[in-house]
Amino acid sequence: MTSEITLFVNPTAGRGRGARAAQPAASALREAGFSVRTVLGEDADDALRRAREAVAAGTGALIAVGGDGLMSLALQAVAGTLTPLGVVAVGTGNDFARALGLPIRDPEAAGRLAADALKGRAPVREIDLGRVGERWFGSVLASGFDSRVNDRGNRMRWGGRFKYDLAILAELAAFEPVTYRMTLDDGPAREIRATLVAVGNGTSYGGGMRMCADADMGDGLFDITVVGECSRTTLLKVFPRVYKGTHLSHPVVTVHRASSVTLEAVGVTAYADGEPLGALPLTATCVPKAVRVLGARTTSD
Predict the structure, then answer these.
(1) Are 62 and 48 in contact (CB under 8 A)?
(2) Euclidean distance between CA atoms 44 and 191, whole angstroms
(3) Architecture of domain 137-289 in this structure
(4) How far, in Å, CA of 263 to CA of 48, rounded?
(5) Of residues 298 and 171, which shows the higher confidence score?
(6) Of the four listed, 45, 124, 129, 242, which is most buried by Cβ atoms within 10 Å?
């Protein structure tokens, strides 16, 4: 393995934490004997191009410093390759890192862990990823009420990690159930009325909302959480329970496991890892062992 690794940085993550976090993470890696090259981009497309160039050139690892948005970009660069991914989670949500038991908002510890994994002193885990067309995702694909909340939350410039809670309250005013056609693996299409359908490779989104609380990123299957048709009052009772994952026992919630899912609905935009995917219909496929993550734990560990 080459001793040169690439630090992939979002300087604006977590209100500037990305830029501040890059230095202690890089220092920890250099102290372990690695040569560190930093990649910044003028915008998301430019950053992804540079990250892919680093991977193609044979970098020893791509170490992503930022929030879930940058982790999503990093996955597009390393998925399906032998280049391992290091995670220095310093964003607002950090759901990808949280699902894998990685340090959160501790860049020095994250840098040390990545260095230890590269030297064989910490695990390097192969984890599953979701794929929609050419787009990879690591955590949760949202559609329905939660994707509308995601859309509103992304537009909000205040509220910090609580902005999704505020967005939930705002979206309730316009809440209407959705008619879906859902197909799991090679089974028949079924029509359902639902508040939302969340496709979980990982467990959470929105900064710790454990919508797919039992998802295992190493089992080759999605956990597909369906919150059925319900009143605003019921939704207000169910949604706060997502932070502990106890919503899964509510009668209005069902969970399915499948390696692929096709969702069809009118007027619904899907999000994955907090980033817009586009309007339904779409088919998501779980790809086993799609990326190697430095220092990661899977649910079964």
Answers:
(1) no
(2) 37
(3) Sandwich (2.60)
(4) 28
(5) 171
(6) 242
Token duo for residue 270: 């899907």
Residue 90 in tokens: 């310093």
User: How is domain 4-122 classified at the architecture level of CATH?
Assistant: 3-Layer(aba) Sandwich (3.40)
Indicate the pLDDT class of residue 174, thresholds 50, 70 and 90: confident
In the predicted structure, residue 5 carries a pLDDT above the cut 60:
yes
- Within the chain, all domains assigned CATH 3.40.50.10330 are found at 4-122
pLDDT more than 70, % of the chain: 92
The answer to whether 111 and 29 have CB atoms below 8 angstroms apart is yes
Q: Which residues of the chain does CATH 2.60.200.40 include?
A: 137-289
* Mean pLDDT of all residues belonging to the chain: 90
The residue with tokens 């159930």 is 177
For 138-167, letters b (16+ CB in 10 Å) and e give bbbbbbbbbbbbbebbbeeeeeeeebbbbb
191 falls in which pLDDT band (50, 70, 90)?
very high
